[in-house]
Amino acid sequence: MTVLKSIRPYHAPAGGWGALKAMGTALAGQEVLMSGMATLARMNQPGGFDCPGCGWADPKHTSPFEYCENGGKAVAWEMTAKRCTPEFLAAHTVSELAAMGDFDLEMIGRLTHPVRYDAASDRYLPVSWDEAFATVARHLNALPDPDMAEFYTSGRASNEAAFLYQLFAREYGTNNFPDCSNMCHEATSVGLPPALGVGKGTVLLEDFEKADAILIFGQNPGTNSPRMMTDLRNASRRGATILSFNPFRERALERFQAPQNPVEMATLTSTPISSRLFQLKVGGDVAVIKGMMKWLVEADRAAARDHGGPVLDRDFIRGHTHGFEELAADLDATRWEDIERRSGLARADIEFAAQAYARAERAILVFGMGLTQHRHGALNVQQLANLALLRGNVGREGTGLCPVRGHSNVQGDRTVGITEVPNDALLDGLKARFGFEPPRRPGHNVVTALEAMVRGEVRVFIGLGGNFAAAIPDWETTQAALRRLDLTVHIATKLNRSHLVHGREALILPCLGRTEIDLQADGPQAVTVEDSMSMVHASTGHNAPASDQLMSEPAIIAGMARATLGARSTVDWEARIADYALIREDIEAVFPIFAGYNQRIREPGGFHLTSLARERIWATPTGKANFLVCEGLCEDPAIADPDVLWLTSVRSHDQYNTTLYSLSDRYRGVYGQRDVLFLDEAEMARRGLADGDRVDISTLATDGVERVVRGFRVVSHAFPEGSCAAYYPEVNPLVPLYAHDPDSFTPSYKAVPVRLTRSSVATGAL
Ligand SMILES: Nc1nc2c(c(=O)[nH]1)N[C@H]1C(S)=C(S)[C@@H](COP(=O)(O)OP(=O)(O)OC[C@H]3O[C@@H](n4cnc5c(=O)[nH]c(N)nc54)[C@H](O)[C@@H]3O)O[C@H]1N2
Ligand SMILES: Nc1nc2c(c(=O)[nH]1)N[C@H]1C(S)=C(S)[C@@H](COP(=O)(O)OP(=O)(O)OC[C@H]3O[C@@H](n4cnc5c(=O)[nH]c(N)nc54)[C@H](O)[C@@H]3O)O[C@H]1N2
Ligand SMILES: [Mo]
């Protein structure tokens, strides 16, 4: 279905009939309307499968309606009746496929057979599974150093698949585990431990029922975790204060009509979500948070002088924390005029937010990519932790930090060992269980893997899911490096860009999806996943596989491992594939927090992996929760150009990362196009531009390399000064590889300094 290009402001609330209609359209578009509805009834239910969409938690008492518009789309995309067959691939050269758009590639449908790249015909041709595994083995065993191979993971992989994957790579000899979370919540995983002793969130779903205030920084729940809207709506109805900090006025942060609520649906009413929306500048979060903390500290001093009630949780600060004096000194030294300039918000507005936060007995601080994907991502997260600690909002009912994870099992993959910097406990655990000596050298993350590829030090790339070539920054350089590899291997469900940006030899290995029956020697298998709130539960597919040639992810990994390691492996791979319960026993042996794994996943809703910070036990060097000072307001001194705009990249309502469900973005009023630049009218006027004009966007780089995307249509959107936005991944060519957080290596996807010029290209290429 072609949608005409248009820009039409969206006036309705988020959710509602529009959401139901969109879900129906997605299922019908994939020709699975009836079977899709039946499948959705099993989603997030006991004995059913875990939604392959986002990582938001499932409520304990499930209603028969535990899915959302975008979960529905994710299922429709996996269940599609369309197929990418060997006949289709034989009929198209890779160069022809590469000329197609990402949306059209995905629309070809599910991959049905393993294929290998044939350079002579420039086509992907069928290959047997054994031959495919032998190819992987030949390349890996030919490398003089195992660190010349990269083992990428995307966060949809189950715990069982991820554990086997790291087992294979470590027995082979490397810790090179670039992972999608390196581009996502790594700033959380790296930023939080020095503050709280844990790198994960500290809330459970039931805390949302008790919080008096919920502050949402840089996260767009209506699109990226729509099931969270139910929790926000309930909180709003209870009278909780919801404050949002975002350069965009995201519709779902304003008003929501619950598709599960018959009254709102029948009467076309909706629930207001945010009490206030603070439109801050791109990258202005540290300034806002420091401003709020400055007010809190000063108000607390004033209260002490006037014998009023405390504003800070002084007992908690005294008994549980370290570094308060240094934080207060830093806040005293921070001037309001700098805070206002850097945040784009008036002092009165920041004080309003601080007062609302101070009035709440219990508060939850939610955050997403708007906070993590910055050069100061870890510092952002740490300042938010400071804000929580000042009022004792960690480790108490109805309070906590809530990083909203992306992929449905990105958190679980890290828990079961996908990490390039393994600790001794993990390595010793592997050695004790399996008897081989795992490598102790740190491996590569996404950025260091790409740097090594650019230097020519990598020969083989294996991707467990995902779309690496499209998700990464700096396409011109990084995609060229991918093309120079000896072998690229992708375990995937659908054809995507990464399969076309391939090495000299290439394999696409098609796997089962979450909704499909995984039948192995000992019977049908379930897998397990961990959600954003550290709940671990089982997922069982019930649909017939898209093709009888598909293998499960664990089976593909075991196939590669057996072919590569042969007799030198100490692992009985076959037994583990026959019965995944054995893999869970391995996980339990290596990670004691999984004690009783196989029994506990039988509990409805699964089990919780304990978080020490939730119990106010601080696994930090000081034994306390630490206030961590960040100097200044995280401004980039290298960029002094007065014309600079800071470009952020966001997801549309109709995409799942690099997977496009359509070219439209309903809530932001964009239809049939993605090559748009959201720009404020004042910034347009300053540049002599009008709504509808086309511009080229180029990066103000410090390495002299030209990075430009052309022909983007200007769309008027109210932003604070100096901020603008476009869609991910269309602007990834603009993000320099060097522009990453020095602590967490998270690329600065949410703040690229750019300049605009009127475009000579009449229409966008998209
Ligand atoms: N339907 C759907 N669901 C998804 C995904 C998807 O693509 N589609 N992706 C999944 C994944 S992997 C992830 S990580 C999550 C992502 O979910 P989110 O974290 O919501 O991701 P984004 O849409 O990238 O950006 C979040 C918000 O940050 C705001 N923002 C941009 N720059 C700044 C800034 O400097 N400061 C602040 N405060 N805000 C800023 C944007 O306007 C946007 O509203 O969702 C997951 N769920
Ligand atoms: N500019 C910019 N860049 C970004 C971001 C941003 O906000 N802005 N966000 C970053 C973030 S948060 C993330 S997480 C990354 C995402 O990076 P990735 O996780 O690498 O990308 P996805 O688009 O989620 O991967 C989609 C592909 O996964 C495959 N797939 C789907 N289901 C399955 C399955 O069940 N098994 C297997 N094996 N494969 C499957 C399909 O082939 C599909 O094409 O992108 C990052 N890049
Ligand atoms: Mo993500």
Automatic annotation (TrEMBL):
Domain of life: Bacteria
InterPro entries: Asp_de-COase-like_dom_sf, MopB_CT_YdeP, MoPterin_dinucl-bd_dom, Mopterin_OxRdtase, Mopterin_OxRdtse_a_bac, Prok_molybdopt-oxidoreductase, YdeP_MopB
Keywords for this protein: 4Fe-4S, Iron, Iron-sulfur, Metal-binding, Molybdenum, Oxidoreductase
Residue span(s) of domain Molybdopterin oxidoreductase: 110-491
SUPFAM superfamilies on file: ADC-like, Formate dehydrogenase/DMSO reductase, domains 1-3
Keyword Transmembrane helix tagged: no
Gene3D superfamilies: 2.40.40.20, 3.40.50.740, Dimethylsulfoxide Reductase, domain 2
Iron-sulfur among keywords: yes
Residue ranges constituting the Molybdopterin dinucleotide-binding domain according to the UniProt record: 645-753
Cofactor(s) listed: Mo-bis(molybdopterin guanine dinucleotide); [4Fe-4S] cluster
Family statement drawn from the similarity comment of this UniProt entry: Belongs to the prokaryotic molybdopterin-containing oxidoreductase family.
Matches recorded under PANTHER family: PROTEIN YDEP (PTHR43105:SF4), RESPIRATORY NITRATE REDUCTASE (PTHR43105)
Designated name of the protein: FdhF/YdeP family oxidoreductase
Organism, as annotated: Ancylobacter koreensis
Lineage: Bacteria, Pseudomonadati, Pseudomonadota, Alphaproteobacteria, Hyphomicrobiales
